[in-house]
Amino acid sequence: MINLIVGNKGTGKTKKLVDMVNTAAGKSSGNVVCVEKGMKLTYDLSHAVRLIDAESYNIVGFDAFYGFLTGLLAGNYDITDLFVDGTFKIGGRDYQGLGAMLDKLSEITKEGEVKIVFTISCDESDLPEEVKKYI
C-alpha cells in the first residue's frame, strides 16, 4: 500500500511522518525504514527505525530512486513499513516520473505486506491525476 502526505513547505508533513514512523516502530513485528536526504531526523526517530541517508547513494531521478527502494525491499523481506521524507529532494521535481515510480511500486506492494509513505512538498492541485490516486 502506498500513501502520500502532500502539502507546501512548512505545513507539517515531516512532523506527521515522524509520528507515523515512531508509531509503526512500536507496532511492527518486522523492520521499519525511513529514507531521507540528509540525516536531520536522527534524533526524532525511535532507535528501532533504520534511517537511511539517500544522499550517500547519489540517486538521480525517479528510475534510480525506484531501483534503490526495490533494492531495499529485496534485500530485507522483513520490512513492514517504508517511509520517505523529501521525495522531490531525492528524485527531482518530476511529476510524471513520480507517477511512474508510484505505479511500479504499487505493483510490487499489492499484497499489502509493505506500507510505503512519501512526503510530497507541493500543492495538491499541482499533482497529475496518476499521482493523486495515492493521497
Please, could you describe this protein's structure?
This protein is an alpha/beta fold. The chain has one domain: P-loop containing nucleotide triphosphate hydrolases (Rossmann fold, 3-Layer(aba) Sandwich), CATH 3.40.50.300. 39% of the residues lie in helices and 21% in strands. It has five helices and five strands. It has a five-stranded parallel sheet with strand order 1-5-4-2-3, sandwiched between helices.
Summary tags:
single chain; 135 residues; alpha/beta; Rossmann fold; 5-stranded parallel sheet
Record the SSE blueprint.
Layout: E1 2-7, H1 13-27, E2 31-36, E3 50-53, H2 61-75, E4 79-84, H3 87-91, H4 95-108, E5 115-121, H5 129-132
Parallel strand pairs: 1-5, 2-3, 2-4, 4-5
Helix pairs in contact: 2-4
* Rg (C-alpha, Å): 14 Å
Share in β-strands: 15-25%
Query: What composes the largest sheet?
Result: 5 strands, parallel
Q: What would you say the CATH architecture is?
A: 3-Layer(aba) Sandwich
Assign the CATH superfamily: P-loop containing nucleotide triphosphate hydrolases
Listing every helix as H and every strand as E from the N terminus to the C terminus, the arrangement reads: EHEEHEHHEH
